[in-house]
């Protein structure tokens, strides 16, 4: 009875930014439980490489080029996927960028708008396009990737634009959840701590940065992509059927202090 709630057989799952990092781990987790995977990534080479890694493990996957900052592109992506697969049951709005390290007083218009365009507007365009389909189809599960940065202000790196964009993702998640709850579409978010991916590799170019991060983390370690993927899997599956509008914090205790 309980194990079945975690199965995703015959479900189609779209993962934006699914070609690498946390997104690719999410694809693998959902595929392992039976979902058919659709990767949407801005870089076709990254999307293709991700798809090939999934296929090498015996999973069913396709990859598509999409820039989540462009609403028309996102609509086209949704129509193509729905046309090809007939349905989409799960959306993981994971694509995001950080561009950390610029003080608020020095941020250019381009910098602010770009980060918010990918992290926040992009999440909404994807939720709107796939959410509309799920509402018409009688249900679905959406998981947005927020961040603990939407709850705290990171140090020592400066990144007001990133922190604000992720707080917006959490609020967007609960507002959409409230609108769609009685029509079968659940919307939740995950707020990770520092995870070892390309995005956080800048720590190696900044002396002492990692020491501050680990000192501020009760578990004194960074996370791995699979530790976020398993939380996303839970929220995408029927095991979390009573949950909507929640941001699940997976932060090694960071927000306890
Ligand atoms: P990565 O940089 O490793 O991967 C991000 C993926 O998103 C890449 O494949 C990237 O494509 C893709 N992407 C970027 N911009 C767009 C766009 N406009 N349209 C479509 N795809 C795009 O990041 P992570 O795996 O570390 O991060 C994944 C998510 O997790 C992000 O939302 C991030 O903010 C969040 N997060 C990450 C944390 C961390 O410590 N790593 C902590 C908390 C949250 P390309 O390869 O071409 O760049």
TrEMBL record:
InterPro entries: NAD(P)-bd_dom_sf, Sc_DH/Rdtase_CS, SDR_fam. Pfam families: adh_short_C2. The keyword NADP does not apply. This is Glucose 1-dehydrogenase. It comes from the Bacteria. Belongs to the short-chain dehydrogenases/reductases (SDR) family. Its EC number is 1.1.1.47. It is an enzyme of class 1 (oxidoreductase). One of its GO terms (molecular function) is glucose 1-dehydrogenase [NAD(P)+] activity. The lineage of its organism: Bacteria, Pseudomonadati, Pseudomonadota, Alphaproteobacteria, Hyphomicrobiales. Keywords: Oxidoreductase. Transmembrane segments: none annotated. The keyword Hydrolase does not apply.
């Amino acid at each position: 009875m309980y194990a079945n709630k975690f199965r995703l057989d015959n479900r189609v799952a779209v993962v934006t930014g699914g070609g690498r990092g946390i997104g690719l781990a999410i694809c693998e987790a959902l595929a392992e439980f039976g979902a058919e995977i659709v990767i949407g990534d801005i870089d076709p080479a990254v999307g293709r490489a991700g798809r090939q890694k999934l296929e090498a493990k015996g999973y069913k996957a396709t990859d598509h080029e999409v820039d989540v900052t462009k609403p028309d592109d996102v609509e086209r992506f949704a129509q193509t996927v729905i046309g090809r697969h007939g349905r989409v049951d799960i959306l993981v709005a994971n694509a995001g960028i950080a561009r950390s390290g610029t003080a608020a007083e020095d941020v250019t218009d381009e910098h602010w708008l770009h980060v918010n365009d990918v992290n926040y507007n992009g999440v909404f365009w994807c939720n709107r396009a796939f959410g509309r389909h799920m509402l018409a189809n009688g249900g679905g599960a959406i998981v947005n990737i927020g961040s603990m940065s939407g709850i705290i202000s990171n140090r020592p790196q400066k990144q007001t634009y990133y922190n604000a964009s992720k707080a917006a993702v959490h609020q967007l998640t609960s507002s959409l959840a409230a609108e769609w709850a009685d029509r079968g579409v659940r919307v939740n978010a995950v707020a990770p701590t520092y995870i070892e991916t390309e995005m956080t590799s800048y720590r190696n170019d900044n002396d002492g940065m990692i020491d501050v991060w680990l000192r501020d983390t009760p578990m004194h370690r960074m996370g791995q992509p699979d530790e976020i993927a398993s939380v996303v899997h839970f929220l995408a599956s029927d095991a979390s059927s009573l949950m909507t509008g929640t941001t699940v914090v997976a932060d090694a205790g960071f927000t306890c202090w």
